[in-house]
Each structure stands twice: as structure tokens, then as C-alpha cells.
Amino acid sequence: MESQNLVKVVDFAPFLDGSDKQSVGDALLESFKTTGFVYLVNHGLSQDKIDQMFDLSKKFFALSHEQKMLAPHPPSGTHHRGYSAPGVEKVVQHVYDRSDIAEARKRSDVKETFEAGREDDELMPNIWFPEKVLPGFREGCLQFFWDCFEIEKNILRALAIGFELPEEYFLHFHTKPDNQLRLSRYPSVPTSVLLNGELSRIDAHSDFGSMTLLMQDDIGGLEVQDPHSGEFCPVRSIPGSILLNAGDFLMRWSNDTIKSTIHRVRAPPSIETDTVPDRYSIPYVSFSDMETVVDCIPGTWNTEKPKKYEPISVGGYVMRRLAASY
Question: Which pTM value belongs to this model?
Fold first, then answer.
């Protein structure tokens, strides 16, 4: 199954211009209920800004290892900022067709990343290298971070309308923002080592925040698991779109009304070359404010469908999940 059959496209323009907010909110929520993923087009983030961020990302990853390590990710997984070299982070929340998680950890994730957030984040302060190493990098990352936050707020407004809640409902829980901008590069590797499982780009996993906005190049390799059949389906890049997916926290918050769907990155489908090219992606991960405690979203529970979860601290939940992947 191709992604266009599994992951629906939602035109966000009628929400932004106010002509039909309800239909956009309904379509967004329906996609989150059925697959947990949706392509957003006419989302309000200009292609020029996205292209410029990809250009800056490529310039960063073209630096020497020594230069990138001037902004090292701390050893602790609970401080997700700075540069992580290939093989440092290992995602293993979901393991398939293997004896145990320990065996899965023997296989490296072939990717390198740089992560940043808001500058005044006391819990996870940013880690930058000297400005002279790559002039404009810090400013470019921060500007794009805040551009994505504006898109996130509109998505949260639309989602609230889909739930038949006040439009600002979710914004009260996403004020900081306690979010993460991640630049990712998957280095070129022999096709055979990905196909035979010797290496992975990212193993099967689900995200654990509120939601993730993903911008990706056209190389391919991202696959989403069909929640009904269990089959992994290629999710190709659609020009001008943002690929949006719900995270585990939003699924819990919605009393499992919304799906947080498993996905992975492997060799692109129908690859015919001996080497898989570099792949670049830019996920923007949204978290609710760390100090807040949330209960199930109104309307997602009743006497026939009681609450599955107790109120939970956002910070406690997120910190446990961050530590598990590093």
C-alpha cells in the first residue's frame, strides 16, 4: 500500500482563511483517529523557509566531526540538545521479529542529529558551537523553531475544533513552548546493510510528545505501519506538505481516541543502486508544558468508555521517554 492510500492529505487553507475551520478540524481529527498521520498542505510555513533550513542543515552536517563536537549532546538522554554522532542514539521502543531488546540494541542507528529548543529553557538549555564555526546557524535554527511554533498553534486550534472544544483549549497546555527542533542526516550506506538488517536508519518506534511536524527530502525510506493490517507502507514526500503525526502523549491524553502510529526509516522502496543516498529530515516535536498535569480530554470518555489513565505530569512522562532512547 502506498502512503497516499494510508495517509490522507488535508488542505489547511480553509482553516487559516477562516472559510471552513470545522471541516479542517474534522478531517485532522479523523486522520489522527484512523492512522495517526496526515499530510498538511497550505499549512502556512513558506517553502522558502523550509528550503533555507534544509540548506543550513546540510552546511552543518558538512562540517568536520571535530567542529560538530564543539556542541556535544550531553551523555544524559534527558538533556536532548546539541550534536549526536551516528550510533549514539538508539530507538527501540518497539521491537519486531527479534528475541529481545538487548539484541536490537546491538544494531546501530545510522543517523546523526542536532537538536535545539527555545533559548530560555532552563530544563534543557541549548548547546551551540562558536558562531564563527558556521555563521548564522544559531539564528537560523531559532527562527525556524519559532516559525514552526506558529504552525503548531494553528494545528492545535484546528484539533480543538475537531473535538468540539473551544479553539484555544490545547494552547493553554502549550505555552512555552517545551519543544524540540531536530536536524537529521542519514549518511549514505551500502544498500545491502539496510536490506539485510545489519544496520538501521531508525527502527520501528512511536513518537512520545503531543505531535511531530516532519519536513523530509525526496530520498524516501520512511514507512508507517497500517494500524489495521500491521503492514509497513512507504510514506513518500509530497512537495509543499508537512507530514504531521500524533505522539504517545496525545494518544494517552485523548483516552486512546487518537492513534500514535509506529513508523521506521529503512532503505527507500524499489532501490536499484548499490548505495542508499544521504537522507535529510527536519522533525519539530511538540510537547505540552512540562510543569502541567493533564487529564483525559473532555468528550473522550463517558460511563460506557471510562478513563483509561490517571492525570499525569507532562515533565515526568517525557523525561522517562527521553532517557530510554539515548
Answer: 0.89
